Amino acid sequence: MNVDARIQQSVVDNLSNRPLPILTGPFVIGYDPGTESPGINYATPLRAARITATDVAKLIEEFRAVSRRPRLEYVVSAAPGLEELLLAAGFTVEERHEYLTCEPGSLVVPPTPAGITLTEPATPAELAAMIDAQNRAFGGDQEPSEADIARIGRLRSQGGVAVMALTESSGCAGGGLAVPPSEGVSEVAGIAVRPEFRRRGLAGAITAGVTERLFTAGADLAWLEAAGAGSWRVYERIGYRPAGKRLYLVRPQ
Q1: What CA dihedral angle connects 57, 38, 11 and 198, to 10 degrees?
Q2: Do domains 3-98 and 108-237 have the same CATH topology?
Q3: Strand 27-29 relative to strand 161-167, pairing
Q4: Where does the N-acetyltransferase domain start and stop, copy by copy (predicted)?
Q5: DSSP 195-243
Q6: What pTM was computed for the model?
Q7: Is residue 76 within 8 Å of residue 245, measured between CB atoms?
Q8: Could you give the angle at which helices 146-157 and 124-137 cross, rounded to 10 degrees?
Q9: Which CATH architecture has domain 3-98?
Q10: 61-118 pLDDT, tens digit each
């Protein structure tokens, strides 16, 4: 199985681990009733599936049935003709991303910035502190909910990774996650550093900390996507390399 196929299968498996996944024809929807976030409630095609316009119409109806906005993320090569079907059904392209991958032999673990300790959150209070730091880093001020805390706790109980950056006096400066590995593959996501702690190398240290823990636990391929040129450089410095293309599409409810 090539890298594109492994990444796409890992997405299928990740969505299938949502609390109430919905399998509809050649798609799986990662439905989570605890949140309306489109970054969690989205669909992806099953690998090597044959997809028709009728399948897409049924997918839209399934999203409507659970009051979620129809949205997909997938590796482009996994469903070459899907974009045209989705555009014809009223979807629009949200993002086109190139994903990066890292293997154990290419990971470079940088030093952690002075005054900061990387650790795994062990209590609900620590999970809340990490989620709060991530929310603020991404420009939001939403307080962590019980559903947020339960979701990350569930991720960790299934073999996922969570890492938080603790300061000596200012609490949590940031954090990052990795979903439970599927056949040795895991997505690293949610890498976030509060604005006042940026430009110290902390994002790279958090990403490397998450990735290293994945590899120690037995994963052999980590992947992620960069939000911009700055993030891209951070990830390349610790051993991630461009590997393939992913597509995001969304449709009005």
Answers
A1: 150
A2: yes
A3: unpaired
A4: 117-253
A5: GGG-SSSHHHHHHHHHHHHHHHTT--EEEEE-SSHHHHHHHHHTT-EEE
A6: 0.92
A7: yes
A8: 110
A9: 3-Layer(aba) Sandwich (3.40)
A10: 999 999 999 999 999 999 999 999 999 999 999 999 999 999 999 999 999 999 999 9
Burial 85-108, CB ≥16 within 10 A → b, else e: bbeeeebeeeeebebbbbeeeebe
- For 204, the token pair is 């790279």
244 and 78 Cβ atoms separated by less than 8 Å: no
Q: Is 103 left (phi over 0), alpha (psi -120 to 50) or beta?
A: beta
- Sorted by where each begins, the domain ranges of the chain are 3-98, 108-237
Which contiguous run of DSSP H or E holds residue 92? strand 92-102
